[in-house]
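Example 9 (inverse folding). The structure is encoded as follows.
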């Protein structure tokens, strides 16, 4: 990004794959005048099983790419990447507003009536220092049941949002938590909102499901407002990139945006 960012510049958003599109959805609804450049690192997914060093390196590569596209702000739409990479990225690019994510443990602790919260996240997120700090700060008075949801991100990348296999996997994760009295589920990975209807069906109507994407969109809005960077009008086209051809980008964009207002491209990083 050049020293002087303009309000009409786009917002860059990235994730290891299609998960960050759940955040794109929230941003488009809250800030429809912002032009977005999305990058999904579909060639290197999942991040949840990779080392913090590797995730930092990948996140820096993607951030550089997004800044080269002229982005005025960056949203790390990935809990797994935010944990090891957020402060690193902020140190590398101190002039760029960078929004990160973390599992919504605080809202979860506020919402539960049984005092039992289920956190669904990746192994990388659950093992991170950032998550440990959240637990100490906000969850010492409640019981948190966690699961690294092994294989769920991969199924979602394959667009298995409703398949019997995905349902069986989610049931095996959630049933023991529900039997234990969990009344609140925190979606601690941006992929999981794509299976929220399935999670709702398994959990029933009485259980709270917390998707942090709207809160991330509001945080982006605050950051842009503070810097006078809110776009006054949508100019140009949204751009969606993936590091491996990923048909769902097109499906998603077509469902959310008007024809002719976006492009979908394949781009390898090295
Ligand atoms: N979507 C990512 C997150 O929010 C994780 C997916 C992965 O393991 O790559 O944590």
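The amino acid assigned to each position is listed next.
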């Amino acid at each position: 990004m050049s020293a002087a960012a303009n309000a009409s510049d786009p917002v860059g958003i990235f994730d290891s794959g299609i998960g960050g599109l759940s955040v794109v959805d929230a941003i488009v609804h809250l800030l429809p005048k912002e032009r977005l450049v999305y990058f999904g690192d579909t060639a290197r997914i999942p991040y949840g099983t990779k080392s913090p060093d590797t995730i930092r390196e990948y996140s820096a590569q993607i951030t550089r790419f997004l800044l080269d596209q002229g982005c005025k702000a960056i949203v790390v739409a990935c809990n797994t990447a935010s944990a090891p990479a957020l402060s690193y990225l902020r140190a590398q690019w101190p002039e760029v507003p960078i929004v990160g994510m973390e599992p919504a443990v605080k809202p979860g602790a506020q919402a539960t009536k049984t005092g039992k919260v289920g956190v669904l996240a990746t192994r990388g997120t659950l093992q991170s220092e950032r998550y440990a700090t959240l637990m100490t700060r906000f969850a010492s008075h409640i019981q948190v049941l966690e699961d690294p949801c092994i294989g769920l991100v991969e199924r979602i990348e394959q667009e298995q949002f409703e398949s019997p296999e995905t349902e069986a996997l989610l049931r095996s994760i959630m049933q023991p938590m529900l039997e234990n009295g969990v009344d609140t589920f925190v979606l601690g990975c941006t992929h999981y909102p794509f299976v929220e209807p399935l999670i709702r069906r398994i959990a029933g109507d009485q259980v709270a499901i917390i998707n942090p994407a709207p809160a991330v969109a509001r945080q982006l809005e605050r950051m842009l407002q503070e810097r006078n960077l809110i776009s006054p009008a949508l100019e140009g086209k949204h751009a969606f990139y993936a590091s491996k051809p990923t048909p769902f980008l097109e499906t998603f964009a077509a469902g959310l945006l008007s024809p002719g207002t976006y492009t979908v491209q394949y781009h390898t990083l090295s």
